[in-house]
Design goal:
Length: 267
């Protein structure tokens, strides 16, 4: 924190014999955490209120005889309301995922999970999206074992979020690669796309909740702005490391290091 963001707490106590105890406490961390909490509540409320306002607006319009009586208009408005309600549903699901992962942060998962089959499962589940954008997904396994100590559901979510981002922000028709490498007691998984890339100024903030480079574009593609925040919290819970590297105009690589189970031989 820079000096401008520092918050000092000054306490003065009078001791016996007229002595004064003056205590300066640096409250910057607590202040920053509190600010993040307040910003998060404000952002979440805003993100939920916007689709809700649209739905309520169309309810009003449909109550009005003219629009409500026209079957074509009715169908169109109901379609919009359906889309907005689904957007709220995705956002609420992501918010609940985040709070669940955070609540478990002191309990690192221990199940042996093989990441390669998880990527295959996600590839099958994302088949339609990949085909729609003409992307292929290649798995490049150079690791002696892709088994990590983990939580199957959360690792599936992590891999899905990274692949969906590679599709959304990648180039149409370009390949996406998921590669695995040995990194001593960890497995390194890297998801690489050949897309628009990210300007370096944004990189440090990408995993903040609701941070987006282009909010309109993210929303138009059904993004909640929580995908990478969820990824970060899953990595933290697994006691792993996350590193996002990008070259504007060339593409992005997201590196995730995850610990192997204790029984796995170290390479
Ligand atoms: P969103 O729902 O907006 O995709 P994320 O938390 O997943 O939210 O990502 C945050 C932002 O990071 C995105 O809005 C986008 O600007 C940027 N981003 C994420 N992944 C990529 C990528 N592979 N290539 C370029 N930009 C990306």
């Amino acid at each position: 924190l820079g000096e401008a963001e520092r918050r000092w707490l000054l306490t003065v106590a009078t001791l016996p014999e007229g002595l004064r105890l003056v205590r300066f406490a640096d409250r910057s961390e607590a202040h920053a955490a509190e600010k993040m909490r307040v910003d998060f509540v404000a952002n979440a409320s805003h993100e939920l209120r916007t689709p809700l306002a649209t739905i309520l607006g169309f309810v009003e319009t449909l109550r009005d005889d003219a629009a409500g009586g026209d079957p074509e208009l009715r169908a169109r408005f109901l379609g919009i309301m359906d889309g907005e309600a689904k957007r709220m549903q995705v956002l609420i699901d992501d918010l609940m995922s985040l709070s669940r992962i955070e609540a478990e942060r002191f309990r690192p998962p221990t199940d042996p999970i093989d990441l390669c089959p998880v990527v295959e499962e996600v590839r099958a589940a994302c088949d339609a999206v990949l085909a729609e954008r003409g992307n292929s997904l290649k798995i490049d396994n150079r690791s002696h074992s892709t088994v990590v100590a983990g939580d199957h559901g959360q690792l599936t979510q992590l891999i899905r979020n990274l692949i969906v981002n590679a599709v959304k922000y990648g180039q149409e028709g370009a390949p996406i690669t998921v590669s695995f490498e040995d990194a001593r007691e960890m497995v390194r998984m890297t998801v690489t796309d050949r897309g628009e890339g990210i300007d370096p100024v944004h990189l440090p903030r990408l995993t903040e909740r609701f941070y987006r480079v282009n909010a309109g574009r993210s929303r138009a593609q059904g993004g909640t702005g929580l995908g990478l925040a969820i990824v970060k919290h899953i990595v933290w819970r697994h006691r792993g490391r996350l590193d996002i590297r990008s070259t504007p105009g060339a593409g992005t690589s997201v590196h995730v290091l995850l610990p192997r189970p204790p029984a796995e031989p170290v390479s």
